[in-house]
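Per your request, structure below.
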């Protein structure tokens, strides 16, 4: 009889543990679908960065934006790389989608980037449709010679 009683107590404990585990599984199943799209986006973004980095010549740093200027009329961000990482003033900042801006100030572990969208930013460009590059400038077109 003592053996049967011990077996019953053990089974009650296992049943309670099983119910707790089932609740936890249900809770995790409800959380997981929310995390999947975010994980997929992160994975896609990191793969884009790896492919982009492979196309660059020379040394490149990968940085994250850690701050934004609170004033809307300044187009600057702070990144988590600085002098200690080899990032210096006037360096270009790129993304897989093109030019982002240039560093305008650095500290040992961060840098301020002036975004290309800021009204104070200027970017030189070369439009090349033929093997010989031509620099383009703004202004009125010259009339064609007759």
């Amino acid at each position: 009889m003592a053996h049967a009683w011990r077996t019953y107590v053990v089974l009650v404990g296992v049943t309670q543990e099983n119910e707790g585990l089932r609740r936890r599984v249900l809770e995790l199943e409800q959380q997981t679908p929310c995390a999947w799209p975010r994980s997929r986006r992160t994975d896609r973004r990191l793969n884009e960065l790896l492919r982009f980095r492979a196309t660059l010549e020379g040394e490149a740093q990968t940085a994250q934006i850690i701050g934004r200027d609170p004033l809307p009329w300044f187009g600057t961000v702070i990144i988590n790389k600085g002098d200690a990482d080899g990032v210096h003033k006037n360096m270009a900042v790129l993304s897989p989608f093109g030019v982002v801006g240039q560093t305008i100030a650095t500290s040992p572990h961060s840098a301020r980037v002036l975004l290309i969208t800021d009204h104070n930013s200027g970017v030189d460009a070369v439009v090349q449709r033929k093997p010989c590059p031509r620099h383009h400038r703004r202004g009125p077109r010259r009339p064609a010679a007759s």
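Residues 81 and 110 are 4 Å apart (CA to CA).

Regards,
D.
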